């Protein structure tokens, strides 16, 4: 080949032969360059993005992500998230993202474990520890909460035990209306008796302290017997040709008194507590007996029909007259003494 009068012929076989060492060295150099390049050993611009810090542009000869981190003195700690992964080859204009893990403490009883994470929910942290996801465990904060740096997650272990215990089955009382029985009267036609049952109970303890007790199943050992009370509903009686309508009938313990000092003490002035002159009645409808009552049982001023005594009116009270008690005013002291104490049925008339 001629150029500007000079011979630029390619080296002939003879030339190569004469300069063998030089050719060999050139070939080795070229090979080294190709091998280096294909292995990533060439200069490249990359960007390193560490979360929470400003991005840094770097020029490096390093071949892998891991190498360049080492070059800039970044130690990867367990739990750190790096993208691309440290084994990846570096390429031109590559961006490397690094999120640093932070510690979260998981406390279970006396044990405390450190978990490094870049952020997760409590559930994921516990899953990672392979605690066996016990449904019974109580976790604070709750499983769905995101963890924060240096957060303490407390796992309270719950224990369960099963026990049997005897329980009383309470009886109830049923009322049975008897239309022919006077209103206010009643009789128990069956006494109640509690039953017994055996409960199978689940006891839940947290850190040794009982927090819940739940009956899982129950078997009756002895059935209960309910109390049956028959109550009267009749509100009228016929006496002396009259039909008497009454609000209520009650059984009372009755005594009698007169206006003497012996019977009434300091009240012996012949005046009742309602201010009436204590003139004894005779038990007729027009002139009823004056009766001392407990106003909580018999309302004052009520007209009464007292079985075997006749009519009476509640006009007085007395210190000893409490509950189902009445005291009947009589004319003479001897009369009152003779009356003594009697159990009587009293109708409180309408
Ligand atoms: Zn008297």
Verbal overview:
With 350 residues, this protein is mainly β. The chain has four domains: 44-99, Ubiquitin-like (UB roll) (Roll), CATH 3.10.20; 102-156, Ubiquitin-like (UB roll); 161-231, Resuscitation-promoting factor rpfb (Resuscitation-promoting factor rpfb fold); 235-349, Barwin-like endoglucanases (Beta Barrel), CATH 2.40.40. 15% of the residues lie in helices and 45% in strands. Strand 3 and strand 4 form a beta hairpin.
SSE arrangement:
Layout: E1 2-3, E2 6-7, H1 13-18, H2 20-38, E3 44-50, E4 56-60, H3 65-71, E5 81-83, E6 94-99, E7 102-108, E8 111-117, H4 122-129, E9 138-140, E10 152-156, E11 158-169, E12 173-182, E13 186-190, E14 195-206, E15 209-222, E16 227-234, E17 236-239, E18 242-257, H5 261-264, E19 289-292, E20 303-306, E21 310-316, E22 325-329, H6 333-339, E23 342-349
Parallel strand pairs: 3-6, 7-10, 12-16, 18-22, 19-21
Antiparallel strand pairs: 1-2, 3-4, 5-6, 7-8, 9-10, 11-14, 13-16, 14-15, 17-18, 18-23, 19-22, 20-21, 20-23
Bound molecules: zinc ion (ZN).
Zinc ion (ZN) binds at residues 257-258, 260, 262-263, 333, 336.
What's a concise summary of this model?
With 350 residues, the chain is mainly beta. The chain has helices at 13-18, 20-38, 65-71, 122-129, 261-264, 333-339; strands at residues 2-3, 6-7, 44-50, 56-60, 81-83, 94-99, 102-108, 111-117, 138-140, 152-156, 158-169, 173-182, 186-190, 195-206, 209-222, 227-234, 236-239, 242-257, 289-292, 303-306, 310-316, 325-329, 342-349.
